[in-house]
Amino acid sequence: MSVAPGRWWRPRSLRTQLLFWLVTLHLAAAALTAWFTFVAYGDLVHNALDEQMRLVADSYAGGDPPRSPRPLDGNAALVRGAFVVQIWSADGRTLRASSWPPLAVVPLQPQPGFGDARTDAPAPSRWRVFTAEAGPRADQPRVQVLQNEDYRRRRALRRALLEGLPIALLLPLALLILWLIVSAASRSLRAVARDVASQDERRPTELSLARVPDEIAPLVQAFNQLLSRVRSAFATQRRFVQDAAHELRTPMAAIGLQIENLRAHVPAGEATERFNQLEAGVTRAQHLIEQLLSLSRQDAPGRPLAPSREAVDIETLLRESVSQLMVLADARRVDIGFEGSIAPVVQAPAAELRSVFDNLIDNALRYAPEGGVVDVRLHEVDGHAVVDVLDNGPGIPGSSIGRVFDRFFRVPGAPAGGSGLGLAIARTAAERHGLRIELRNRDEAEEGGGPGLLARVHLPPAPLTPG
């Protein structure tokens, strides 16, 4: 993850942040516990061993004459922390006896009591030293007891590590518990994400707060408020489209009738050409109004998501669509044909299926060149029923093929006459009933290939019977 210069790294994942801070907290707690134990137990060990050294020294100094100390080896003195007892002459110049003679390099300390000494031989070490006070007689020997200071530190350190070990051992368990807690909490967030993903963009509904953690609830509430504003905007848009289409429908129908009545009174020549252009414009306007009304009915908030269904014979439906659009095909001198090799039945409202196929065939007829060909085929592809609508028009540029289903979008350079709503209406009706529309430019290599567009409708799975 890149970080801006001068800014501390901060993970974006909440789970990563929690794990990071938990690990840091546990390690800091273990280190602090170990340090505190080392200091506290070190003082305890130091004081206890000092008291033992004093008792050992007093026990040897009280004897008359002092008894000889028991011999030690180097391992006992350096590693196991055994007390090294030295018996010195009364003047402190002569070492009369020692439990470990190599430590004679440490002389009798000038002042009685505790002190510290460092030696380089027989090994570099630090020593805790207790020197007993001189006896009542002038010739009474002096006693000095030594213990390896590194042994004391090792003992305190070992105890400190043992005290911090449980916290370190609990760290993996704590991480596992946190991982499970965060995973359980994130399930509610994933549920909210699924609710958002399943929203119908035309009918967004509020998200439930029942399973949302309190920390995320304000975000979900803000999102619900946004959805409310979106619904209000959609409702305003629908009302505008419906009102405008209804208000325009009657006057445009009246204008169409008046134009039809004027046809017999238009003189031949340039006036007839201008009249035909006017009539074509009025026809386009009427077509646009009908499409706007169809669009507003599909988006109506009171429209049920699952309208009443019926068994529709797709072959019969396509033949009817081709027959009704034959007038438009004849007007553009386009050869339209139908070929069906199967007879699938789809459970859906017939009117909405007609909307899908009528718009696709109408779109093909409008973009096919004058004298061109439009073929409607009902057949199987990879065992699935499909309806293909093919034309030999200019096709759709690759940069625009992903946008042709957007409302009011028209391909740049497309011939006049379209409104940019036909494909949007077809897709909306298709998606409501499990159909899928695929558009692609025709390939020269395919059967009957050449320039043009292939609009393929994938029908829902259904039993097929031979056509």
TrEMBL record:
Reactions accelerated catalytically: ATP + protein L-histidine = ADP + protein N-phospho-L-histidine
Listed transmembrane segments: 20-44, 160-182
Region of interest: Disordered: 441-467
Domain (Histidine kinase) ranges: 243-463
Assigned EC number: 2.7.13.3
UniProt GO molecular function: phosphorelay sensor kinase activity
Membrane topology annotation: Multi-pass membrane protein
Domain HAMP span(s) in chain numbering: 180-235
Cellular localisation: Membrane
Enzyme superclass (EC): transferase
Keywords in alphabetical order: Kinase, Membrane, Phosphoprotein, Transferase, Transmembrane, Transmembrane helix, Two-component regulatory system
Major localization listed first in the record, in broad terms: membrane
The keyword Amino-acid biosynthesis belongs to this UniProt entry's keyword annotation: no
UniProt keyword annotation of Methyltransferase present: no
Protein origin, superkingdom: Bacteria
Any one annotated GO CC term: plasma membrane
Cited InterPro entries: HAMP_dom, HATPase_C_sf, HATPase_dom, His_kinase_dom, HisK_dim/P_dom, HisK_dim/P_sf, Sig_transdc_His_kin-like_C, TCS_sensor_his_kinase
Entry-linked PANTHER family: SENSOR HISTIDINE KINASE CUSS, SENSOR HISTIDINE KINASE YKOH
Protein name (Swiss-Prot/TrEMBL): histidine kinase
Organism of derivation: Variovorax beijingensis
